[in-house]
Amino acid sequence: MILSMTGYGKKSVQFLNKKITCEIKSLNSKALDLTTRVAPLFREREMEVRALVSSALVRGKVECALWFEQESVCEGQVLNVPLMKEYLRQIQEAGQDGIPAPHDIGAALLRMPEVMTRRTEDALSEEEWQAALEAVNGALEQLTAFRRQEGEALERKFREKADNIERLLAEIEPFEQGRKERIRSRMVEALEAIPEAQYDQNRLEQEMIFYIEKLDISEEKQRLTNHLRYFRETLDGEAGQGKKLGFIAQEMGREINTTGSKSNQAEMQLIVVGMKDELEQIKEQVLNVL
């Protein structure tokens, strides 16, 4: 099973008159590149959020945002009612001493110092923090499900490409049959075309054997077959094998390139080009694997 590094998750949790929301996005990256944006209320617990997200996602360019929306209608400035009552008491006492009261006592009270105060943010309670953690965990679960779904699509693509490479590798075999004899025949014909050419037959046979062995691709075919098998076994293994799949793809590329350099027939070279095209698509997509 493989997981994609691409994912998205969002979860909202209701707590009293607040809606706490966590949103997490993830793209491919060689390592974990985590950016967090949290509301001031949760700033003191930001490191816990980072630790939780890091342990769950492992790799990827990750953006995590945690905020809340206040649903109460009483926002902004609020009245300090106890202070207003104290001001009113003092005005009434002053009236008893002959000091005239303001024409509009209510307006006068509103102009008194510190009667209007700005609402300050409440301290973060443990219950509210647990609600925030529920939002973070919910977003992580959604993102992981997204990664799994994308990973299944990538796995199908990888298996298809690996099968295509294996099929193309088998298509090379018919061109290998009689290949050595054709090479030998061309070399002999070339020598015979030279007038009065003299050569040692035994030495010629040795040189031809050495040359033909250098063009033999049996080992490359065997190693490429082994790499394809190991690639499929890794796909069947546990998640988090993206780097290993990339290394195997590099080894497959070496064997395919060597096969191409040893191919001295146009038909074989066309097949090698086809294998390179299939492998290149694997290399492009393996960068998205966790």
Give the H and E element order. EEEHEEHHEHHHHHH
Q: What structural class do you assign from the helix and strand content? A: alpha+beta
Kindly estimate the percentage of residues that lie in beta strands according to DSSP: 5-15%
The end-to-end span amounts to 11 Å
Q: Looking at the structure, what is the overall shape?
A: rod-shaped
Q: Strand arrangement, largest sheet?
A: 1-2-4-3
Radius of gyration: 38 Å
**Rounded mean pLDDT score:** 86
Helix % is 55-70%
Return the domain count.
Answer: 3
Strand count = 6
Unreliable parts: none
Q: TL;DR of this structure?
A:
The protein is α+β, with helices and mostly antiparallel strands and about 290 residues long. It has helices at about 45-55, 80-95, 105-110, 125-175, 180-190, 200-215, 220-235, 240-260, 265-285, and strands at about 5-15, 20-25, 30-40, 60-70, 75-80, 115-120.
Describe the structure.
There is one protein chain. The chain has 9 helices and 6 strands, in the order E-E-E-H-E-E-H-H-E-H-H-H-H-H-H. It has 290 residues and is an alpha+beta fold. The chain has 3 domains: 7-73 and 124-146, 2-Layer Sandwich (Ribosomal Protein S5, domain 2); 77-118, no CATH class; 151-286, no CATH class. The strands form 2 sheets. Strands 1-2-4-3 form a 4-stranded mixed beta sheet. Helix 1 (46-57) packs parallel to helix 4 and helix 8 runs antiparallel to helix 9. It is rod-shaped and about 145 Å long. The mean pLDDT is 86.
